[in-house]
Each structure stands twice: as C-alpha cells, then as structure tokens.
Fold:
Amino acid sequence: MLGESIQSTDKAGTADISPLSTRLAFNIPQDVAVSGFVNNNKTQHHFTFTGILGMEVLQDEVFAHLGREVVLNAMDGYNSTIFAYGQTGSGKTFTITGGPERYADRGLIPRTLQMLFQEIRRRGFHSAGAGTDEEAAPVMYQVCVSYLEIYNEMGYDLLGEENRKEEGRQGESGALRLPRVVPLEDEGGHCQLRGLSVHPVSTEEDALNLLFVGDTNRAIGETATNEASSRSHCLFMLTLEGRRPGKETVRRSKLNLVDLAGSERVHKTGGNGLGRGGQTLREAKYINQSLFYLENVILALYEKRSHVPYRNSLMTSVLRDSLGGNCRTVMVATVATERSHTEESLSTCRFAMRVGQIRNDAKQNEDLDPFQVIKRLQTQLVAARAEAGWTEKGGKEVPLSEEEKDAVRAACHDFVSRCEPGYEGIWTRGRGRG
Ligand SMILES: Nc1ncnc2c1ncn2[C@@H]1O[C@H](COP(=O)(O)OP(=O)(O)OP(=O)(O)O)[C@@H](O)[C@H]1O
Structure:
C-alpha cells in the first residue's frame, strides 16, 4: 500500500486533528460510555497515517495529495487504486465523487479524469526537453471506462444497456433495472467480470458523461446519519493502454476509484432498520458482511497467512489485485469525529493502520503488443519471400508484381516510421525495380 489518509468530517469532536499532520489522537475519558461502549482501558488512542486531511481541506488539495501521483503511476503502466472506507455519512462519496452543489466540490474521479486527459494531450507531443529519445517520443493512449456496482452481494453494470432488463437490479420504484455482472476466475486467479460493459472514451467530457450516467443509476437510500447514503460498493474503473508509435511495447494499467458502502451499526440504522420495507436492514446486513470479509482479507495479509480468503465476497474478489497484489493502492479512511461516532472512528483507524502495514507488489505492466509483432513478422516474411523469389530466378532482375510492390512499400513505410526524429538522413539500399 502506498499509504492511507484521513478525511474527517468534524474538527471539533473527540479527535485531535492538526491539518496535514500524520498523527491522530482520540481522547476518551475513562469509564465514560461513548456511543454504547464503556472505556475502561485507555484514555488516549494514537494513530499514525501518511497524511491527515481535516474537513476544511479543499477538494483540490485532497486531489493533490492523493490523486496526482496515482494518475501518473497509472499512465506509466502501474495498476492503481484509491478506495474510501469508513462509516456511513463520514465523507466517502464526497471524497471520491464529490459534492453535488459546487463545482469546487468535485471529488477524486472528475479531477482524475481532468488530469488524465490533460496529461494524455501533453504526452501526445514530442517533448523536446526530455532526457533520452525514448522519453521524448510521443505516447498515444487509449482509455476505457467501466462502472461496477456491488449491491446486496450482486454485481451490476451501472453503464449497462437497458435492453437486458429482466435480469437486473430492480430499484424501489420498480423502474430502475441494471444488467448483472458475474465474476469469473481466469487461470491466473484473476477476477474477470462477465457482463461489465467497457466504453472507449477519447475526451474528458465523454468520460464525465459516463460518470454522470453511472451515478444516476447508483443505489441510494436514507440512513440515520446520511440522507443520501450509498447502499452499495461502487468501482469506477479506467483501463489505460499507452504505446509509442512504431514501438512494439504497450503499457497497460487499471485505475480503480472505489467508494465502499459505509459500515453502520444496526441499532443506528434508523428506527428498527425496517425503513423502506425492511430494505435498509437487508442492505446493512450485506454491507456489513462484505466489509467483514474485507477485514478478514486484510487480517490474513497483515498476518502473512498462506491463504487469503479473497473469494468470500464479490468485492474482495474484484479488489484482489488492489489488496496485496500487483497494484499501487491508496486508502482513504473517512471518520466522523463527533463523540457519538467514536467507536466506529476507532475501528476505522485500527483497520486503516492494518491496511497501511500491507506491502503490495506493483509491477510496471509492459508487454509486447501482439498486433505490432505480427505486423513486423508479416513484413519480414514478405521481404524474405521477395528475396527468395529473386534468388530462385537466378539473380535476374524481374519486375515486381503489384502485390510485391505493396509489400515493399509497407516495409519502407514501417522502417521510416520507426526512425526517431534527430536522424541526419535515411539511407536506402536496394535492388530490383519497382
Ligand atoms: N469534507 C466535507 N466537506 C463538506 N461536506 C462534506 C464533507 N464530507 C462529507 N460532507 C457531507 O456530508 C454528507 C455525507 O457525506 P457522504 O455522502 O460523502 O458520506 P459517505 O461516507 O459516502 O456515506 P455513505 O456510506 O452512507 O454513503 C454529505 O452531505 C456530504 O456532502
């Protein structure tokens, strides 16, 4: 893990938060009942994090601390994830997606998209001042967007087409239905998501439109602490492919921005939890269960156990790489620091400390692009055949057929496109005519 940060929703609670410090202290008087539990042991709890961002920290600063490096990493071929974890109403959606009222409240996803497309434009040009020729050459990117929701332990495509209605999630009104997404494990143990649509995007605007469509389809309900509570885990997924024209290598990466549903105590679910015809309680049960499985995974990784129970829930299966695998991961632990939420805040901080101990093994995903390799081999084959044909004909100059001429032109074109800028000239040496 790269680290974890705290975004608090209240400065004046029991927690002592100094802006941009790394230490968070909770002061709980002994023998005082706080949100249902009596503290007999410690009066102070200290936690150390990579960074602590108070509620007053603006969204652009949050992005500068957490998002910038993640975008650059992903563009360089490293799988990257930012996930927000914390109790309901503590600011996960505000951090990941943003607030609905002001443009300045845009969260990590829209800011990531903005920076990504700015950087794509910048890298698309030959950069004269860069160190090596390799670094200076332009890079072309392909970006695709998917948006997955995990609701009551089922996967749904938030960008799915409407015509697959009968299979999907039905909203309270009965009107909203989304296509199901089913996890499948490949030979490498990686989770593939059948039914999740993948949308190529070439501009920030295209990607933002998809974000908007997906957000409109999310399962939202009211809880005691949040009137617009996310009742599901939502994963906004970007897949990036970067290649330099004429080169055979391609860098591929995934960038996941994850808003987990908030844990909540059933006694705090509002009334007896039977709101919305018992739906609130049912949702809380699934949410708490999947967060429990997430904690089991983190505990197994923390204790370096040989078996990590990723398969227990859809969320941990999907986040397998992000948790202890080939990924650079940032966790944002959100806490509400009011006294009434101390129990949940302490549990979030303990969880975050454990997550911070886990070391991922992130690799730069650089592969040979099979299409480029096939193209080169085809060109070489045609050239070799042409040469063999010429030899067979006793070295006599025989006019090339139209097909051979095309192949030679393609080979020349390919050669020229590989030449780096800065060559003094291109020398040709050939035989035959055409
Ligand atoms: N840093 C902040 N500045 C201003 N408002 C905030 C901040 N953090 C959260 N809020 C507000 O607090 C409310 C709850 O936040 P949010 O919906 O992000 O919580 P959540 O953790 O995603 O909750 P849930 O798990 O129930 O979905 C929202 O109205 C949000 O706009």
In short: The first helix runs from residue 59 to 75.
